[in-house]
């Protein structure tokens, strides 16, 4: 995670608090840490009644998205174990951004593994430019967005391979190579990017009809698919 702050002053303490929020989420939800609450839940050492309040909050949010998507978005991985990674990164990064705002910061860009919260502006009157990389060429941009007080998340296969599971089938989703979602906050953008990718061809318009979001997706054969008010957020060509 990186944070670019454009407000004046020394904000090291605020940044430390933001990073601490993300580290806390990792300690609770990581499937790679044996003593995380998620790992202990999967070993039946904890139950949904005995997990922490933060775990309960994230679980309830994920459950609502799972229900709204008809099970496309899933709270379990292919092996049937609890896995909230489809929500936790965006949720934790948004909590970190909210903490920065609560501490008085208004103009910053928080980037959590390619998922971005763009708060305020990079300079007076100029939105943050956020590039969406091409699935075919890492150095090329599929689009550049001009964002202010918005978030964008991308789900794709170009770095981690076929890791996005369709909760209806338990199998890797196919059809898209990249899905990006713009929304007012990162939790929704992150979950919807995963859900749209898993849902397939119906996903972009499903998301745009039900949530305040815009979608830019590319199919495996290179076709671009738009939904919502996407063109409103495209940066002017220079």
Please identify the oligomeric state.
single chain
Cα-atom radius of gyration:
18 Å
Low-confidence runs of at least 5 consecutive residues = none
Order of helices and strands: EHHHHEEEEEEEEHHEE
Amount of beta strand: 15-25%
What can be said about the biggest beta sheet? 7 strands, antiparallel
Walk across the major sheet and give the strand order: 1-2-3-6-9-10-11
- The structure class reads alpha+beta
Overall geometry: globular
Number of beta-strand segments? 11
Total count of helical runs of at least 4 residues: 6
> Please, what is the average pLDDT?
93
Distance between the termini: 28 Å
Q: Describe it for me?
A:
The protein has 238 residues and is of the alpha+beta class. Helix content is 34%, strand content 24%. It is built from six helices and eleven strands. The strands form three sheets. Strands 1-2-3-6-9-10-11 form a seven-stranded antiparallel β-sheet. A hairpin with a 4-residue loop joins strand 7 (165-166) and strand 8 (171-172). Helix 1 (12-29) runs antiparallel to helix 4 (85-102) and helix 4 packs antiparallel against helix 5. The longest helix has 18 residues, at 12-29. The protein is globular, with a radius of gyration of 18 Å.
